[in-house]
Specification:
Elements: E1 6-12, H1 17-32, E2 37-43, H2 47-51, E3 56-59, H3 61-67, E4 73-76, H4 83-95
Parallel strand pairs: 1-2, 1-3, 3-4
Length: 96
């Protein structure tokens, strides 16, 4: 991603509790990876409008199917509170 500040969008079903948990854990991973990123949250019904110029979208495998075709890289996480799963998925995405 070339050293620029990343734009990451956390997407959950309703845009409330689980996306906030996801956002907090993404921010921990970003800090651990020594990256700079702006992380925002949204619900699945407004995701397409919010994603726009995002670099990465992080969501569950089920919701990823509903997001459809977007320019951003879509990262799926099965367990929103599993730091290691999220870190591995982000590292893989950033390298690829």
């Amino acid at each position: 991603m070339g050293g620029k500040r990343l734009k990451i969008v956390a997407v959950c079903g309703m845009g409330l509790g689980s996306s906030l948990i996801l956002k907090m854990n993404i921010e921990k991973v970003i800090k651990d990876l020594n990256l700079e990123a702006d992380v925002s949250t949204t619900d699945i019904s407004t995701a397409k409008a919010v994603i726009g110029d995002a670099d990465i979208v992080i969501t569950s495998p089920e919701l990823a199917q509903q997001i459809g075709d977007v320019k951003a890289k879509v990262v799926t996480i099965k367990n929103f509170v599993n730091f290691n799963e999220m870190k591995e998925a982000l590292e893989k995405t950033l390298k690829g």
